[in-house]
Design goal:
The structure is a single chain. By secondary structure, the chain is α/β, with parallel strands linked by helices. It folds into two domains: 186 residues, 3-Layer(aba) Sandwich (Rossmann fold), CATH 3.40.50.880; 112 residues, Arc Repressor Mutant, subunit A. 45% of the residues lie in helices and 12% in strands. It contains 13 helices and ten strands. The chain is globular. The two termini are 18 Å apart.
Amino acid sequence: MSASALRPVAVLVLDGAKPLDVGIPAQVFTTRASMPYEVRLCGAAPGLVNGGDGLSYALAHGLEALTWADIVFIPGYRFPDREDPPPVVVEALIAAHARGARLAAISTGAFALAATGLLDGKRATTHWHYTRALAAKHPRIEVDENVLFIDEGDVLTSAGAASGIDLCLHMVRGDLGVAASNHAARRLVAAPYRSGGQAQYVPRSVPEPLGERFASTREWALHRLDQPLTLAALARHAVVSARTFSRRFVEDTGYTPMQWVMRARIDRARELLERSGLSIEQIANDVGLGTGANLRLHFQRILGTTPSEYRRTFTKGG
């Protein structure tokens, strides 16, 4: 792929940057045949930047990279509640956004994004340890501590480091489709899909093995999407009452069991639309939705488009 066809991505490394937060977007969007992106790590100026956890970064690019990028990631950094990034950094982020770039913060990078004012009046999240500090420092932001990531279109935020993977895969899914996102997830040995609404931190009063059984039940369900999946059947597999299963499932995933099953079916339909020549009716049957009309109804409700339009968008040559 020619350099001109690659989508430009900048990763802004601030003082105290956390290595995993920096590495996630750099690795997810790494240039390869399946990932048509070019990544540049940059700082307030080229040169050495002290990071967190004993690491430093030798950066080849300064803030000029933000004038080049279509996507700008702001990784988390240490002590984000103590002071804002330098004004020149804040101004560069505002200018990049005004030019049309999407700004995506990982973990405490939300504080730098909040300093621009671009999150005012919008929903945002950050690592659960810092959500109260973010809300206190920026009261015009609707801070949600119980989600993995939030997509507000041109500004996106995510919780702790691992949820940065979820955010990146979500962005790849929107840019390139489910098949590319799943391919990237397999390369990273990561979960292919965790919704932004999934809880990032829920204090638990039940033993951890119950959570493991629920994970097993979700995996069991994913292999049976073409079959009837009722709340009773899911709870029976999890060996708990339907009422307990439903309540705990919402805490674990952010969705009711049936909402989760429906989204899993739609995601499977998306993949079949991208990677097979099956008819809409056959796909509807294969994912447990029965009829093409039923698939179209739920596809439109969840994704805001039709299966046919989705196939045209994400099929090679479409």
